[in-house]
Amino acid sequence: IVQGATNSNYFTGILMVAKDTSDVNILGSWSTTDSSVKVISCNGTFSNGITQISSTNKTQIQATWSPPSNVPQGNIVIE
């Protein structure tokens, strides 16, 4: 589960994907029950990104990232 929160500030937009350290390949898939975000498809791959539903002020979101069945060696970066 990936969670983000801020106590004193807010954010209005977010776009998150998980990538290998080469910053080229988007990996895994996302799911959420958070009503302020939705799962999107990037580069033709189903459910591999997450973004906001509206530009209303947010202080937190919650989403779950699932790794691919063939996880590459090295670090995975969520950006």
Describe the secondary-structure layout.
Elements: E1 2-5, E2 15-16, E3 18-20, E4 26-27, E5 29-31, E6 37-42, E7 45-52, E8 60-66, E9 76-78
Antiparallel strand pairs: 1-8, 2-7, 3-4, 3-9, 5-8, 6-7
Number of distinct helices = 0
Quick one: how many beta strands?
Answer: 9
Strand proportion: over 45%
**Range of helix content:** under 10%
Order of H and E elements: EEEEEEEEE
Structural class: mainly beta
How are the strands ordered across the major sheet?
A: 1-8-5
pLDDT average, as an integer?
A: 86
- In terms of per-residue confidence, which ranges show pLDDT below 50 for 5 or more consecutive residues? none
Shape: globular
Number of domains: 1
Radius of gyration: 13 Å
Q: What separation lies between the terminal Cα atoms?
A: 14 Å
Largest sheet: 3 strands, antiparallel
In words, what does this structure look like?
With 79 residues, this protein is mainly β. The chain has one domain (2-69). The chain is built from no helices and nine strands. The chain has strands spanning 2-5, 15-16, 18-20, 26-27, 29-31, 37-42, 45-52, 60-66, 76-78. The strands form three sheets. A three-stranded antiparallel beta sheet has the order 1-8-5, with no helix packed on it. A three-stranded antiparallel beta sheet has the order 2-7-6, with no helix packed on it. Strand 3 and strand 4 form a beta hairpin. It starts with a strand and ends with a strand. 11% of the residues are buried. The model has no long low-confidence stretch (mean pLDDT 86).
